[in-house]
Design a protein that fits this description.
single chain; 296 residues; alpha/beta; six-stranded mixed sheet; five-stranded mixed sheet; DNA-binding; LysR_subst-bd; LysR family transcriptional regulator; WH_DNA-bd_sf
């Protein structure tokens, strides 16, 4: 007879957590996967094992009886499993990051984290969508905004400045740029929203309908690449252009800079920050951000 240990253990964790969402976080699977396993176990037993409440789930009489039978064995298994792990740092830590931030800032630094914390299994989920940290198997997300995320804790990392950059050959061959309005003599490169040039020129007293013209890119990394290849001027966050500025494939078209009102935040549930396995990553990324441009 095949014993569905995964379903039984899932049932055990849900009972202990009192919530399918919390169990999903603990097991690093989706809430939908938890629900499916519980449904399969209920079909096997031929009766409901949980009743849903506003706070989560409560075992039925049959569920309570099953939990009483399997609780001690699974607790003993967990105790044995923990003997080989110094602390929670050995479990996988999942971090959701925007692709542009991942490639432009985080990726070059991850080697340092791996050397400093070899026991932490770090998984980077690079996706433009906004993950739901309350229901998905993700520990942290790095988000760009004002830091207001109801029900979540947010730790400020940095507020990069906006700078105007272009390829050296393009700037040598084109007209001189002495003030923001002079940028309009060049092709302008945009991000997906096409808002930055308009706001920047308005802030500098040079509004123009030409500010929205030109190529746009869905990823800021591609925007920087297009500028380095001489396709136009880009108004970008300084952290994304740092490597190209150092290599000389880009240079600043103007020395002034425009600090953004938005910042990058490390966001997660309060319990995620409290977990010992996550503290190494939290401390590391805050220290790295503190050494980056755009930090007061």
């Amino acid at each position: 007879m095949q014993i569905p240990l995964q379903r039984f253990y899932t049932f055990f964790v849900v009972c202990r957590a009192g919530s399918m969402k919390d169990a999903a976080r603990e097991l690093h699977v989706t809430a939908g996967a938890i629900s499916q396993r519980i449904r399969e176990l209920e079909l096997r037993h031929g009766q409901r094992l949980f009743e849903r409440t506003r706070a989560g789930v409560t075992p039925t009489a049959a569920g309570a009886a099953l939990y009483a039978d399997i609780r001690a064995p699974f607790q003993q298994i967990e105790t044995v499993a923990r003997r080989d792990v110094a602390d929670d740092a050995a479990r996988q830590l999942v971090v959701s990051v925007m692709p542009s931030f991942a490639s432009g800032w985080l990726l070059p630094r991850l080697g340092d984290f791996a050397r400093r914390h070899p026991a932490v299994s770090l998984s980077i989920d690079s996706d433009a969508r906004v993950v739901d940290l309350k229901t998905e198997a993700v520990d942290f997300a790095i988000r760009h905004g004002l830091g207001h995320y109801p029900g979540l804790e947010a730790r400020w990392l940095m507020s990069p400045a906006m700078i105007v950059v272009g390829a050296p050959d393009l700037l040598r061959q084109g007209p001189p740029i002495r003030c923001p309005a002079d940028c309009l003599a060049y092709p302008l490169l945009h991000d997906r929203e096409r808002q930055d040039w308009t706001l920047w020129l308005q802030a500098n007293g040079s509004p123009s309908p030409k500010a929205r013209r030109g190529l746009s890119f869905s990823d800021e990394h591609l925007l920087v690449r297009a500028a380095s290849e001489g396709q136009g001027l880009a108004l970008v966050r300084d952290i994304y252009a740092g490597a190209d500025l150092e290599k000389g494939t880009l240079c600043k078209a103007l020395e002034g800079q425009w600090p953004t009102r938005f910042g990058y935040y490390l966001v997660g549930l309060p319990d995620s920050f409290a977990a010992s396995g996550a503290r190494a990553f939290v401390d590391w990324i805050q220290a790295e951000a503190g050494r980056s441009p755009g930090v007061p």
